[in-house]
Amino acid sequence: MARGKRTINRKEQMVFEEDDKPREETEDEEEDDDDAEASDEESGDEESGDDDEESPKKKPKKKAKAKVVKPATTKAKRPRGGKVVRMRAIWGVFNNSNAMVAKFDFPQKQEAEEHAAKLREEKKATFFVIQVKEEMK
Taking the complete model, does pTM exceed 0.70, yes or no? Predict the structure, then answer.
């Protein structure tokens, strides 16, 4: 597939002046030349050597501003991470719809399993124990 960008023929854009020095025409100069040609056509055949004085003077091209370069810092700054939240492990007793029914501290795993077994017998449903992490207060 062809790309939407066309190549520019630079040779066609070259303009030769009286000195036969090749130079590239810019957009501003093209517009100025079109304006000058239009005014010449209006004036008719009245051409004289004074056209150079009457024609608009070309503005000198502006120099590109130099970019300000900051000196490199000796000490590199590193981004700080967010506040670290402390977590603690607990045992959670969950039902079949993954809703937490009861919580037990980490050393009380035996009590959590006994509670899940008791709920299975009473409610005739599925209950299970999973280790969960929660924020410390």
Answer: no
